[in-house]
Amino acid sequence: MRDRKKAQALAHELVSKMTIEERASQLKFDAPPIERLGVSAYNWWNEALHGVARAGTATMFPQPVAMASMFDPERSRKIGDVVATEARAKYNEASKHGDRDIYKGLTFWSPNINLFRDPRWGRGQETYSEDPYLTARLGVAYIKGLQGDGKYLKVAACAKHYAVHSGPEAIRHEFDAEVSQKDLWETYLPAFEAAVKEGEVEAVMGAYNRTLGEPCCGSDLLIRKILRGKWGFQGHFVSDCWAISDFHLHHHITTTAPESAALAIKMGCDVNCGNTYLHLLRALEDGLITEDDITTAAERLFTTRFMLGEFDENCEYNSIPYEVVECPEHLALSEEAARRSVVLLKNDGILPLDKAKIKTIGVIGPNANDRMALIGNYHGTASRYITVLEGIQDYVGDDVRVLYAEGCHLYKDRVEGLGLPGDRLSEAETVAEHSDVVVLVTPIDSAAHKATLTAALSACYPAGHCGDFTQALMELGACVCTPKSPKCEVCPTQSFCHAYKAGNVTKYPVKRPKAAKKIEERTVFLLECNGRFAVEKRSETGLLAGLWQFPNVPQKLDAQTTVQTAQSFHTDPKELVLETHKTHIFTHIRWEMTGYVIRCNAMSEAFTWASLAELERDFALPTAFRQFLDELKTL
User: Fold this and answer.
1) Which residues are catalytic?
2) Tell me: the pLDDT tens digits for 445-460?
3) In the chain, what's the furthest Cα-to-Cα distance?
């Protein structure tokens, strides 16, 4: 069995020989070498969500949410063991070649044991479902498989993202997860507690968000009181990537990078995935931390490296050969996992198919012959991919004719750029008409899963300038707020403005609107989004959506084109969501029959509205804006 006390003693001895500058340098994810002490460079960032990821060829397994469908902890443990075996084989060879690059180490930031509570999160495929018990069982099993039961850790697993982290993805860098104590302890923490106490996981990664007011990577409650105090965690703690910089950039818990670094390390964050720990020595000079804070973190990290056998030439895993990578036994386990992960939701008697009675099979769908649909995220590289179409063709051979139609693009309204919307539909109809049975393959792939509308939007609408647009709105007599400064003392909307309460807005001088009955009805929040602005028309029969930016308005604002653009992004404009990931702001176009409205949102849950009809009556609107509104009215 592994001897942590011995590893701690060795780590203490090694770290004691380092200067304070050398100790601080080891706390970044890309730790440099210390040649005089025989310490190699080491990159702590490695991925193994469902196979060794981002490091070349490896055996790939189904995404965790699919593996969870097996409801089989023992098989999850076996998969973890295979992943660790291949990780060691690849590490051994990379080390021989002096390759200490990212994704080629032994500390793997897996598994993700967050809960898949809302499908809109966007990263549910990484998790083991929404169930705390199942997540705990499968997480512990995978951790045990990864870490092994030998003298040394086979690899070091990491339970992430701690804690109360399962969306919203777009504002994860700034929002506060205000969870009840019941939900915290019964829903969000059980899997992490099991990972620590039962799985003896070597690392825990903190989440981007705040939980109950504290940033997760600098939380006294989560790290010191619960993780290390109540649960007795002895491993190392790592920040999610660039999460510590969020302390001062987005959460506004601190004001400078040295303050953020100090908060994180004093709360017990040992590794910074990011660069904020470059400011540790400045924090030390400013008296924000002590040398002991840096030393403690360094000793924890070298304890892990000693427990991995890095400094032992006779480590039991050094002899694992490269030939185990994608060996037949591992591929067989991957295929078995894929078969067991399939869920049949309904069978009205058509299955199983008898190919002796079928002459033609139609395979239709954008993912039927798409490798991206097979890959998932945090993936490695398989040496061979078999799409659904190829699998059916191989299985039926020459006995059955297989017809194929893409049917549609995965998220655009046409496949060919010069074609008309729906340019592949008639082919799909033809294939269906000529087939005895049709296999339809339509789920999203990893690219569409991660994609936002921002890139497509930016291609259609060049960036404008927020300052000009702000001034234009102010001329309308609107109260304009932008998410820049933590002060908004004079804003008359304080009582209901969620952005103000979060300390994320700056107040601009405004004049009160004429004939204002309620300030809420006249308040407009400006999107910090390159000057883009959402304009909506609502009626009983539908909703039209257009984009207006000031002053770079096109010569002719074509409302019909904007509606078609919205439809190309998402089949129905009333469900369109415009996401700006970099500023973490959403504009939701909702289905409400409230006439013409302007609405913007400054990181706020409290949406406020201004009636365009009243603005037209009370204020001098820009001519181009009036023309656009007139065009909308005719549609």
Assistant:
1) 240
2) 666 554 433 333 233 2
3) 83
